[in-house]
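From the methods appendix. Each design record in this collection lists the discretized structure first, followed by the designed amino acid sequence. Records were kept in a plain field format so they could be parsed without special tools. The example shown here is representative of the layout used throughout.

RECORD:
C-ALPHA CELLS (173 positions):
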C-alpha cells in the first residue's frame, strides 16, 4: 500500500492508487508550491508486536511534532542511515537505500493507558520487511539520540516576553 506525505505534511493512506511519481520509482519529488513531497509504500504486515515507549521519548517526540507547522516530523537517524517520519498517528522508519519502502511502523500509541505522565506508552510495532526484523531492537535507542540532536536544532516558536502593565496603574490613579 502506498502512503504519501502531502502538502500539509500528513501521512495518509493512498490505497492502491498510483501517481506519476510512482512510475518514476517513488521517493522524493517536488510538489506544488515548491514543497518536497515523499511517497512511502508499506508491504504486507509480517509481524506485529506490542511494545512500550519510555515516557521521556514519547513526550519529546510529541513536543517536537507540535512545533512543526506541517504536522509531520522528519528525523534523520544517521547512525543507522534511516529516516523516521512521524505524524500524530504513527512513526514510520525508512531505509536510506530503499527510500520509498517502510520497514517498520510504530502505530496505535495509547498514552491514555498510562497512569502517570512518567509511565511508558504502549504501542504496536509493525514490521513490513525482513530488514525491519534486524533493526527493531536498535530503533528505540537510536531514535532517542536522533531526537536529542534535533531538539537542539529546533527551537520553540515564539519566545518569552515581559509585559509592562505599569501604564494601567497610572490610568487608574
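DESIGN:
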Amino acid at each position: 500500500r502506498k502512503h504519501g506525505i502531502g502538502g500539509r505534511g500528513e501521512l495518509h493512506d493512498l490505497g492502491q492508487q498510483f501517481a506519476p511519481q510512482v512510475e518514476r520509482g517513488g521517493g522524493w519529488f517536488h510538489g506544488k508550491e515548491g514543497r518536497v513531497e515523499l511517497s512511502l509504500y508499506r508491504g504486507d504486515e509480517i509481524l506485529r508486536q506490542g511494545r512500550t515507549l519510555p515516557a521521556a521519548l514519547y513526550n519529546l517526540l510529541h513536543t517536537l511534532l507540535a512545533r512543526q507547522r506541517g504536522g509531520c516530523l522528519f528525523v534523520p537517524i544517521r547512525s543507522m542511515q534511516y529516516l523516521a517520519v512521524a505524524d500524530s498517528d504513527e512513526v514510520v522508519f525508512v531505509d536510506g537505500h530503499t527510500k520509498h519502502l517502510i520497514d517498520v511502523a510504530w502505530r496505535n500509541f495509547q498514552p491514555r493507558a498510562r497512569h502517570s505522565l512518567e509511565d511508558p506508552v504502549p504501542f504496536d510495532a509493525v514490521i513490513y520487511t525482513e530488514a525491519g526484523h534486524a533493526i527493531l531492537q536498535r530503533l528505540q535507542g537510536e531514535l532517542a539520540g536522533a531526537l536529542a540532536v534535533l531538539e537542539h536544532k529546533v527551537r520553540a516558536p515564539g519566545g518569552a516576553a515581559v509585559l509592562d502593565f505599569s501604564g494601567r496603574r497610572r490610568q487608574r490613579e
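APPENDIX NOTE: Strands lie at 2-5, 11-13, 27-30, 36-41, 47-53, 73-77, 82-86, 91-95, 102-107, 121-127.
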